Amino acid sequence: MKSIATPSRAVLLLLAAIALGLTQPGAALAEPPAGPFSAAADPAEVFLEARDLALLTALKPPDKELDRKALALAVQAYSQTLDPAWTAGAESPTGGSAAAAGDPSDAFLNARAQALRESHNYAEDEKAIAQAIRAYFQALDSYSTYLSPQERRELSDNDRPNYSGVGMDILAGPNGEIFCVPYDDSPAHRAGILSGDRLLAVDGQNVRDRAPVALSALLRGPAGSRVDLTVAGATGPSRTVSLTRANLNRQAVETTFDGLVLKIRIYRFEAETAAEVKSGLQSEPNLQRVVIDLRGNTGGDLKAALDTADLFLTAGSAIVTVTGRSYSGLEPVAHRATAKPPKFTASQVVIWQDQLTASAAEVFIAALRAHHQAVSIGSRTFGKGVAQTLTPATGGGLFLLTTGELMPADGRSFNHQGLAPDLLLRQPTQEGDYFNRTEEAFANYTHLPRPLKPH
C-alpha cells in the first residue's frame, strides 16, 4: 500500500463538486468559513475529507444516487452509535431541498448536529464519526475502511515479527466476514481454531465489518493474558474458546529440503521475503524441484510479491498491471520483471494454494503460471484482486481506500473470482493430499495443462 498526500480542502471541494455534476470545471468554491466545523475543532471534517477522497480516487466512484445512499447509511451509523435506539424518520436524512441546493454532505452535517442535540452524547462524537466514515466507504467498496488515530498507532505493531498474541492472521471477506488463519502450533491453533473459521466476536465484541488492523490489536496483549474468541466453521453452531496469549516470533518464510525437493513456505509477503526466498534457492546449487507453499497466505506487501516473482521470470515478463484512478484520471501502472536472466530457474516448480490464498499471493501465482514457470495445486483462491491506498486523515487517522484493480498478465481479473488451480484438490484438508498430487505433478510435469498464456 502506498501513502499519498491529501489535497487542500478547497481543491477537494471543487473536484468533488465536479465529480457529482454540482458545478463545472472552472467554477470557484471558497474555503469554508471558520466555525464549529473547522478542521482544527470538529471531527466532522474527517468525514468530509473521506467523502471527497472517495469521490476522487475510489476505484468505482459513486454517482449522485449512490452518494446519497452512502450518506444515508453514514447518518444511520453515526446516529445509532450515539443512540442505539435511533431509527430513521419518514424522510431521508440526505434528501430535501437543502441537500438538493448544495453539497449533499451538508445534510450529513445537519443530521449530525440534530443527533448531538437530541442524544447529548457529545463524548461519543469522534467514535460516531469513525463509524459514519466506515459506513460510507462500505457502501462503495467492501474492502475500504477508516482507521482511527488509535488504530493507526497500532498499525505499525502488525509488522513486528516479535509480539504477544494468539498467533493468527485474519482476512476480511467481501461481505464483511472475518476469516481466521492460525499459525502452526500457536495458541489459536492449539485451541482448535481452523483455517477458514469465521471470527464472530472478541471478548464479546461483534467484529463484523471491522478493519482487520483494528481486530489484530484486540487479539494482541501481554503474554499470559486471556482473550475469548467466538468462531464458527462452515457448518455447525458457533463456539467460544478462551486463549492465553503467548510471545510469538512470526517467520514470513520457512524452507526445508529433503534431498530431492526444496519446500518454501511463504506465510506472508513482507519486505525481506524476496531475499529470504533467494537465499533458500541459492542454498542448493543443483536444485531441480521446488514446492512453494502459499496456503493461508493472505497477501501482504505487493512490492514484496513482485520482487519474489522476479526471481523466477525473465526481464520484461509482465507480472501485473494496476488499473485505477488518481486526481488526474485513469493511470494504469504495469509491473514487469527486471531480472536478466532470471535469478533462479528450475525444471519443476509447483505452487500450493487454498481458499485463503489472497491478494499479493494471487498476483505471484498468476505471474508464474502465465509464463509457464509453475503449476498450481489445491483449491480456488480467495479472489481479492484490488490495490489499496493509505491516506493520512485530519486528526491522525488513516483512510484505507480501494483505488485500483490488480490485473494479471493474461488480462483476466481474479477479483471476487479467485484463481482455479491447474490440479484441483476437491477436499484439500490433509497435507498428504498435497504431497501425493505433487508427486504426480512432478512425474507428469511436461504434460500438465497450461491454461494461461504468457505475454
Description:
This protein is of the alpha+beta class and 455 residues long. It has 3 domains: 2-141, no CATH class; 162-249, PDZ domain (Pdz3 Domain); 253-388 and 405-447, Alpha-Beta Complex (2-enoyl-CoA Hydratase, Chain A, domain 1). Helix content is 31%, strand content 23%. It is built from 13 helices and 21 strands. The protein has helices at residues 9-19, 44-57, 64-82, 96-101, 105-119, 125-140, 149-155, 187-190, 212-219, 273-282, 302-310, 360-370, 431-443; strands at residues 2-3, 145-147, 162-165, 168-172, 178-182, 198-202, 205-206, 226-232, 239-244, 246-249, 253-257, 262-266, 289-293, 318-326, 329-330, 333-336, 348-353, 375-378, 386-392, 398-408, 423-424. Strand 8 and strand 9 (239-244) form a beta hairpin. The chain is globular, with a radius of gyration of 24 Å. The relative contact order is 0.11. Residues 1-41, 90-101 and 450-455 have low confidence and may be disordered.
